[in-house]
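Records of this kind hold a single protein each, on a pair of labelled lines. Below, a sample record shows both lines together.
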Amino acid sequence: MVKRRPAFCLGPFLTLAVLTFFLHACGSGASGPDSGNVVDSGSDVAMDAGHDLPQADLPPSDSIDASAADVPADAPVDGETPDSGDIIAGPDDSSDPIDSSVVDLNEDDSDVADPACPVFDDPVVLSNMEGTVLTELSGLAASRIHEGVLWAHNDSGDSARIFAVVPDPSQSSGPPLITPFAFDSEGQTWGCFDWEDIAVGPFGPEGASHIFVADSGGNGCKDRTSYRLFIVAEPPVLAEGTISEVTVVTYVYPDGPHDCEAVFVDPVDGSVYFVVKEERIKTSGVYRLSAQDLAEAGTDPVTATLVATIPGQLVTGADMSEDGRMLVIRNYGGQKILDTLCGGLLFERGDGESVADMLGGTFCLLPDFSGEPWIEIQGEAIAISSDGAGLLTAPEYILGGFVPQLLRFWPFSHSDRSRPGPFSSR
C-alpha cells in the first residue's frame, strides 16, 4: 500500500529519551497558578496491553457523495489492489479475508513522498495559556456556530465543565478570553472524571451542532472497564453559565479496557470515533459508535466497533474538519513513523470514502510539535481551524514554566489551502 511520506517534520528534534522523561515526569499532577485544583494522577502514559482485533469496514452509508452502488464496501483505495500485507484473514476462516483497514508498516520502495501532502508554514503564537484555569489543557475543537471560538477542557481532576476560548488578537503573548460552562444535569451521578478530548459535530434528529467530551481515560478510575461520552448543544451565547441538558452515553470496547485520549466526530453521519492510546505496541486501534448507537443508548453500555488500525502510539488528540474531508491524529511529538520524527498523522478523505476507507489508505505526517524551536512538551490538544486553513495545538502547563504553555496556529502553505485562517493575521 502506498503511503505518503512528506518532508515537513520541522527543525532539529529532542531526543526520544528526553521526551520520554517529560511524558512520564511532567504528567505528575503539578498545577500552575489558578489551576482550579486540577490534578493529573501521572498515568497519562498508561500501558495498554489490549489486542486490537480486525473488523470489517463500515458500510457505504458512512461515506461522502456516494451511494451503495457507487462504492463497494471493500473497494481498494485510489484504484490500488491491496497486497497480502494489507489483508488479515478472519480467525475462523483463513480463506475469507476481512478488509480490516490495517496499515502496512513495512517501509519499501512504494513508500514515497506524496506532493499532495500539505506543507506547513511556521506556527503563529496566538496566546499564552500559562496562569489560566486551563492548566491541564487536554482537548481543543473549533466551534461550528461562533467564529474564532475554540472549545476546551481540562484533564482529570477538574469538575464537569468546558471553556470557550477566544485568543486576544491584540497580544499574542497574553492570555486568551476564557468563559466557563458547568455541566449540572439534575440527578446526575457521574462520579470520576478523566476527560481526555473534545469534539464538535451534529447530534440529534435535527443534526444541531453539539459538543462531545470523552470521559475516556483511566486516571484515578481504578479498574475502569466502561467509559462515558458527554454530549451538550453548543451554547448560543458566550456568557458564563450552566448547561443542564446533558446526554451521557456509557460505552465499552469489544476487546477489553483501553486508555483513550483522542476522539472525533464525522459530520457526514454523526458517528463518534475513539483512537486508543497504546504504549507497548506501535499501532493504535480506532473504534466507532454510530449515531444510532448514541440515539439508542440507555442505562446499559453500548459497544464500540473496531474499524481500523493505524501506525503510531501514544496518541493524545484528534480532530476532523467541519466538512469531513480532513482528519488529524496527534501524539506528543518526537515519534518516528516511516523513519521520520513527527507529531502524528493527517488523512484526507476522497469522494465515496468512509472513515474506515480513509484510515486504511494513504496518510501524511504532522510536524514534530516537540522539536526546536517549539518544544511542545506534554502536548495533548489539537484542532482543525473552522475554515480548514490550518491546525491549532497547545500543551499542558509544565511545572515552573520550563517551556511556555502556548496556543499556536499552524497554517497550511499549500496552494489549495491558501485561504487566510481565522488567526493567520495575528
In short: Confidence is low (pLDDT under 50) at residues 1-62, 66-113, 415-426. The two ends are 41 Å apart (CA to CA). The chain has one domain: 16-417.
